[in-house]
Amino acid sequence: MFMHMSLMSNLSEKRMIMIKTTRSALTLFGRFIINNLLSFIIFSLIDILDFILCYVYKFADYLIETESKPCYCSPVKETITTSRSGNILVSESGQSKIFRFSSTRIQLNEISDTLYVRPTTISELSKGYLSENEMSKIRSTFAVDSPFVEMLQEKIIGVKKDHRIPRWSDCDCNTCNSWASSSSNDSLFVRVEGANKRNVQEDVLFIHGYISSSSFWTETLFPNFSKSAKSTYRMFAVDLLGFGRSPKPDNSLYTIGEHLEMIEKSVINPYQVKSFHIVAHSLGCILALALAIKHPDSIKSITLLAPPYFPAPKGEKTTHYLMKRLAPRQVWPPIAFGASLACWYEHVGRTICLVICKNHQKWNSIIKFITRNRIKTYLIDGFCCHTHNSAWHTLHNIICGTAEKVDDYLNTVRSKLNCPVSIFHGQDDDLIPIECSYHVQTRIPRARVKIVENKDHITIVLGRQKAFAMELEEIWKSSKSSN
What we know:
With 483 residues, this protein is α/β, with parallel strands linked by helices.
């Protein structure tokens, strides 16, 4: 009798567990269906909105500035092709001209195809992405819209515009536009702290992530380094080209070559940096890797926080696979929704910059009033101090455009650099998944990965700055024995 009751009890518990598991699975499935259905409806409407905004901004630009701003959804009227001799054919409205391309400032192979191949929500569902053969044909003729032609004409035939004057939709405050009135408007804004020139033993370069600034480091880590570290290391934190207080030229395509050139021109060359450690966050990780393989004998250590590395499966176009993973056009979680707006929609993105970035001083005042000036607003400043042109091109040409090159970067770091590689990733990061860091480790087996519990894409530094500062000091110390 007792055994029978015990058996019945066990069966009852198993049934309850099965019921709970089934309910949980159904709940998750229901949420998945609702999220996907809602996302499809909302992003289909946003596709229409972006189309309408294209013409709204053309009219507004012409009305305010007497010229329409070219965009990447315009009908293709120009074609650029390159030959082995270095000539460029620019054809527009039936008239063709051949120019000799001598400037290295813009490299056509650094321009991401995601700028001009972004299918709508409906077309993506029905047809998917272009095949690799179709993409190869596009790359071979390089069909582009007027932004490329306009910028190349300036580089090649000397058509000049005053790009120091901000567009009507960009902020013109002293912080955002300080570079325009500066005598050194061809270099980045650099914050230097730590050891002075006479006592410096080693240098450290900090590179921030997307739509951020040097304050991400200077307001968090810099005050928390030990006295010993401050007397040993000279630390550089830069505002990347197009962000913070650095130049935001309207004629730039913000390619990886331009970003690296500005870092070298603003830090490595003027400060005579011979060897250095690199600490980089998110998008900055790509620049860090590219800089490391460009200066392989100078790197002491590499520390990456949430590196956006998405190796594409066979048959997938790497740039578009990354775009789908980074910005999946989902309304939930909110950070994915924001990334999707920024990545897929040129004119919606410009509207967001118009509302937020152009009025960031007002938003700062409102936040300070609501919080009674009890919180620092440096993150808001970093988030807002950029132009749509710099944010749009940096996102596509650095994160998406280098997707096919990151494998080579990592292979070079593994085989030709002996420096320590450390990777940190927040367990709750909804933007860059944890597997990205493990993917990096598969390419660089010696890399040490640390998953930080209960931290996300931002709080991996913010809120644990003291602990992270100590961890960095240990990495720098240990690199002396390994090198």
